[in-house]
Amino acid sequence: ETGVTQTPRHLVMGMTNKKSLKCEQHLGHNAMYWYKQSAKKPLELMFVYSLEERVENNSVPSRFSPECPNSSHLFLHLHTLQPEDSALYLCASSHTDISRETQYFGPGTRLLVL
Amino acid sequence: GENVEQHPSTLSVQEGDSAVIKCTYSDSASNYFPWYKQELGKRPQLIIDIRSNVGEKKDQRIAVTLNKTAKHFSLHITETQPEDSAVYFCAASLRQAGTALIFGKGTTLSVSS
Hints:
heterodimer, A: seven-stranded mixed sheet, four-stranded antiparallel sheet, 0% helix, globular
């Protein structure tokens, strides 16, 4: 349960605020992911980093900005968000070795945009 | 790109019955199919996965079957228990470095005692 951690666990922000979500993995993985989970929607991929390089950006609005300073840490910088951005933001990590590709999720950050 | 459809969206069973959840995928190149269980307020956790070179995999009361020709895979839970109540997500991906999972919309399973 502590392999992938996320902070903060809950966040309330106004539309003009700037905040950052943090993810840290202690599993020795080298790929990290941001997913958005909204009510009644599937888990939506936002960003993928493999070996600290961004390999996928799934048409996410520029008000979301990811950062991966090393293979253990992943950030999601937020600015001028909209109420529809309220959701659970989940971080995940995995190996890039295809024989060990299982993704492990963090507990998520519950974001409310007012 | 890949698209994953999952059915049913809700499933209610009596304790001890079996539950089956089905998923279809669109990209024939997908070759890795995990299933995640998400309990209320908790993170998704992998319960079983299958790779495209295998047709069936079993782990105690849980089994997954894969039909590559038809591009569908299913989760089977036997002898269901109340603690099996959760949302179950299927996913598909290519087994490449850093490839993301494409998830189905989820099935809410309720097991009543």
